[in-house]
Every structure is written in C-alpha cells, then in structure tokens.
Specification:
8 helices, about 210 residues, alpha+beta, elongated, single chain, five-stranded antiparallel beta sheet
C-alpha cells in the first residue's frame, strides 16, 4: 500500500500533537523518524527561552502532580510529554505509533529556539508577566500584528523592556505571547500609536499556518 499524503499525520500536526515515529512509503523505501533526548546545550537554549516567560516555574513543567514530564527532540522540533506516555509508546512498533506529546517549538539553523503557539496552554498558567489587550485590538493581534498602546488594556506591574509576556483578552483568555517593547512605566507615557508588545505567536496561527504549524 502506498501512502503519498497521510491525512492522519496532517491532522496530528494541526492540533499540535508531536509525531514520535511514523513510516512513509516513498520510492519503495520506509523512512523512520525517531525522537531523542535533548543535549545539554539544546536544553540550556530552550530553558533560557522558556525562562523569559515563566521564570523559575520551568521546574513545574517537569515535576507535576500528575507525574514527571520530559522533552524530546524530533526533526529540530521539541516535544513535551509525560514519562509514563513515553514509556508506553515503546510498546508500540515504530510503524504503528502515530503521535505522542505536544510541540513546544523548534531550533533554527542558527541553533536558536523559537517557541510555537502550541506551547501556549502550558506557559499561560505559569506566566509571570502578562498583557491584556482591548477587545478592539484582539483581531489585529490574532492576524500577527504587534500591540499598540491604544490597544493595551493592562500590563503586569514592573514589566521590564524585552521581557517575555503572555497576551490575554480582557476576559482572561490566552491569545498568544510576545516581548514587551516598553516597560510598565513607559507604557503609561507613550503615544497611542507606539508599539508596546512585539508579536511572537498567536492562536490565529492555527488557521493562518495550519499547513506548516509545528
């Protein structure tokens, strides 16, 4: 049987699930992709990026009340899963296991780590610095634009410039994340058209980038 376009794989990527192992028949070859643990350098780079958003709360991602969780690398992308699920996945043959875990981001060719929107649900509960966007500016942010002072509803006190922030609606729904362009104090003084948060990722990507997400 020849699978040229596995729709089940596209669906897993769409919902943010990580592909642990899968086989694809192509030119009579079976290509197997396998996850591996991160190296020390990769772990340091990724944790430095995560710490910009959740600080020391990184440890809460690993040691959770429902068990111990871990990160695995696959095709330059980092996936997050419980050790229990990781161990169970070894009982399934490589060509049968479709997916496991959630994509947190990927390493670029220059070995920098870029967070993906699929990590939002795990970062939002532990965010130390937050920004709330006004209803009239939500759509602009969800189209990938920066947040202007005119669209800023609230911002966490003592937010420093270039601090990672999680962006919320005024009803406390996580919309994405970004980087503070101004400090909390500066946000009170700048003109309405000044950028106060640089866009990094937003939930609109599930529609805009569904073919390339993760």
């Amino acid at each position: 049987m020849r699978r040229t376009e596995p729709t089940w794989l596209a669906y897993c990527l769409h919902v943010g699930a990580a592909v642990c192992f899968y086989s694809l028949f192509k030119e009579k070859r079976i290509i197997i992709f396998i996850m591996r643990p991160l190296t020390d350098d990769e772990t340091k780079t990724m944790f430095e990026k995560l710490s910009k958003y959740i600080g020391e709360n990184i440890k809460l991602l690993i040691d959770r009340p429902d068990g111990t969780y871990c990160f695995r690398l696959h095709d330059e992308r980092v996936y997050y899963m419980s050790e229990k699920i990781l161990k169970l996945s070894t009982n399934i043959s490589r060509d049968k296991l479709i997916s496991v875990g959630t994509c947190f981001g990927k390493f670029t060719k220059t070995l920098k780590f870029r967070l993906h929107i699929t990590a939002l649900d795990f970062l939002a509960p532990y965010a130390k610095f937050k920004v709330w966007v006004k209803p009239g500016s939500e759509q602009s942010f969800l189209y990938g634009n920066h947040i202007m002072k005119s669209g800023l509803g609230r911002i966490t006190e003592n937010t420093s410039q270039y601090q990672g922030v999680v962006v919320y609606s005024m009803s406390d729904v996580p919309l994405g994340f970004g980087v503070a362009a101004k400090t909390t104090q500066e946000c009170r003084k700048v003109d309405p058209m000044s950028i106060v948060v640089f866009h990094q990722a937003d939930i609109g990507e599930y529609i805009r980038s569904e073919d390339t997400l993760t």
